[in-house]
């Protein structure tokens, strides 16, 4: 028993302090830049064409289709969607491939659309 009384006890090794897991800062994921899909006005497409196209390509409800049709007619352009570059390019290409308006005989093809970066994004 006397031997045990004089036995050396190992001290725990000193550890460096690290932040608890909850406090460690992880890099925030970068948000992709946003782009507007712009539909351009012309005289060769009807409101009905725009409304149906907005429903089929973008899933917009009737009222949103009407709003875009009125805006493109009065302002010369309308934003159909704001999204990532890749998705915006797809939607622009779908507008270009949509086809002519059968309600207007002089119509030769699809409407025109472009994409542009969201200002300040």
Structure characterization notes:
The chain is α+β, with helices and mostly antiparallel strands and 121 residues long. The protein has a domain at 40-121: Ribosomal Protein L30, Chain: A (2-Layer Sandwich). It has helices spanning 2-5, 47-58, 62-75, 85-96; strands at residues 35-40, 77-83, 112-117. The chain has a 3-stranded antiparallel beta sheet.
How do the helices and strands line up, and which of them pair or pack?
Blueprint (H helix, E strand, L loop, with lengths): L1 H4 L29 E6 L6 H12 L3 H14 L1 E7 L1 H12 L15 E6 L4
Quick description:
By secondary structure, this protein is of the alpha+beta class. The protein is built from four helices and three strands. The protein is rod-shaped.
Q: In percent, how helical is the residue content?
A: 25-40%
Sheet with the most strands, sense and barrel status: 3 strands, antiparallel
CATH superfamily of the domain at 40-121: Ribosomal protein L7/L12, C-terminal domain/Adaptor protein ClpS
Number of strands: 3
Radius of gyration: 31 Å
End-to-end separation: 76 Å
Give the class-level CATH name of the domain at 40-121.
Alpha Beta
Mean pLDDT: 88
By DSSP (H or I, 4+ residues per run), the number of helices equals 4
As a percent range, the share of strand residues is 15-25%
| Strand-pairing-aware structural class | alpha+beta
The outline comes out as rod-shaped
Order of strands, widest sheet: 2-1-3
* Low-pLDDT regions: none
What would the keywords be for this entry?
Ribosomal Protein L30, Chain: A, alpha+beta, 121 residues, 35% helix, three-stranded antiparallel sheet
